[in-house]
Each structure stands twice: as structure tokens, then as C-alpha cells.
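Sample entry (393 residues):
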Amino acid sequence: MADKLPILDLKRSYAAVKDEIREALERVLESQAFILGREVRTFEEHVESYLEKGTAVGCASGTDALVLALMALDIGPGDEVVTTPYSFFATAGCIARLGATPVFADIDPATYNIDLKHAAAKFGPKTKAFLPVHLFGQMTPVEEIAGLCRERGIAVVEDAAQAFGSWRKVRQERSSRGSSEEGGIEEKIVRAGVMGDIGCYSFFPTKNLGACGDAGMVVAVDAELGKRVGKLRVHGEGAAYLHDEVGLNSRLDAMQAAILDVKFRHLEEWNAERRVLADRYRMFFGMKKLQEFVTLPAELDGNFHIYHQYVVRVPRRDELMARLEARGFSTRIYYPLPLHLQKCFAFLGYRPGDLPESERLSRESLALPLFVGLLPEEQEKLVDAIAEFFYEK
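Predicted structure, serialized as C-alpha cells:
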């Protein structure tokens, strides 16, 4: 083990693909085609095939993916979007940026994702979209609220920035039309981002599928909606220099697409390794009998959690974090202040205590190192240090 254990070490996974990436970059350099083009479309096609539905549109970042999705749904002033206060800032920031109002619902304390019953209670006459987040790599069971959203004409926009490759088993009625099979209930695997109307992904370098810079993607289940997103990413251009509406300059460049396409070939293997690392943490924490002090992340039935982050809940969080840092173990807080209490959203009128589960989690959450290439002995030494902290006299 090295002297220090970082929260993330991208060099370990890069070592396995660096030759492939350099070859891909050389191909782009030789072509001198850097903006959109064949490399981008190839990556988009691979994503569409992987998700088994939808139109994929590469863009400049995960933040832009959210903005483009909301723009394509004509969300703006006077509209409300129900979402979670426990997420990266862009989730709510993109709603406010378009002049719409974020309406926050509390979270499920076990999964850290939005509480669907609380979210449904927030739906009102101005609600135009529901924006759940598949936080830390675990999916929200969107199917449980999708029917209500359809009834009320509310679009479902999935923030899957941290969940590319995550999936969920969904129970649905089997259609018997045009088939000799009887109807009934069947289980179907659905990937994050295509359970609702439109999904948004981030390929920020730290993500499970990360670029070498900013990059993102929108996947629209409806082809016409996807076509509109494609226009919006190039200034609303329908044909060269002819603009149907005002859009953005938010294009995924060819070099990032080439890098992502290389890494995409390794994603399933890397996500499987992350699940092994999560299991190993459970084993080590169990061996140290830390259940009284450390609440491990829960995996919802039917979910394939990809552990973009491994976030535990602990008492005396800040004190533990400082002790671990002194011992050479880096940890991180996601997120220290829920969005409803951020200064920029003070105009919404939320007060401490309004969303207690989110506020409690912000005081207790601690992300532990989890990345491809993390060694068992590194995990064990970290858990030993945590045990020493809680069991010291």
C-alpha cells in the first residue's frame, strides 16, 4: 500500500487502456475532424445499442445535458420541476437557470435517492417535470411514479450523471397481442436514463465512464424529442446557418468521443469490479463489528448498483474524517449542504428542518475510496483505522 490512499486514483484504470486511447487519439488527429462527426456518432450509436432504446445526443457536459433536456421540453418561467435537494448543484441549478422553479422533496434515508411518495405530494398545477437523480450509482424506482406522471402530463427527466451502466429489474405486464404466449407479469431490465422521457449523463473524468475533460449526453426515448435536442446543441440549427430556435453551443468533440468509446468497451468489467469492492467493504466492516457506528449503503431490491461513490453514514463524521486524513486516508463529503439551504436558493423560502432526512444525511455522510484498481489491503487498513477511531477508550 502507498503512504497515502486517495479518494480516487484514475491512473490505475488508465494504465489498462492507455495504448487503446492513444491509438484512438492519433486516429482523430490524423483526420483533423474535431467537432462532432463520425467519432461522435459512433459513440452515440454504441450507447443507443447498449441502452436498447432512445436517441443519444452527445454534448459538452452533464450540466448542459440537463439544460438541453429541459429546453427540449419547453420548461421555463412559471413552470415547476420537482427534484431532490441531495445532489450535485447542477440538478437544481439547471432548472433555475431556465427561469423555472425547483421544488424539493425529501430523500429516502436508506438509498439516499428521492422519496417518491414525498415527491408525488409536491406535484401541483404548475409541475411540468419530475427530475429524479440516480445518486451514487443506484437507480430510483421511477416505474413507481411514472404512471402518475403520465396521468398528469408531467415529463420524467432522469439525472443519471452518476449512473451510466446501472440497471433495474422492472415488473410489467406481458403483452399477449399477436403472440401465442399468455399475458401476465414479466421482469425486464431497464438501464438508468431510459425509464422516463429523457435521460442525462455526465462523462466528467471521475465518473465510472469518464472522459479526459468535460463531456455529457442526452438520451431521448422519443425520436422527435431527440432530434430537437440535436438541434439545440448546435444553436438550434436545422440546416447550415439556418436556425429554427435559439439553442446552445454544446457539442461533444471527437477526441472526447473517441476516448469514451474506448473506455466504454471496459465499462461492464469496471462496474463489476466496483461491486466486488463494495462487497469487500461490507465484509471488512462486518468483521470489525462496526454496525453500531457505520451505516453501509443499501442496495434496493432489483437494482444493479454501480457504486460511483461508496457513501456511508457515521456519527462524529467530521472528527472521523480529520483522523483518517491524519493517517493518510482521503475521504470526501457528498454533500455538505442540501440544495434547499444553499444561499442562491434562499428566495425559495426553505428553512432548516423542512427536509430533515436530507439535512441529516448531509451531517453524517462520508464517501470512502472506491475506484478500479483499489487493493484489498488498502480497504482493510482503512476499515481498521475506522474501527480504531470508534473503539478507542
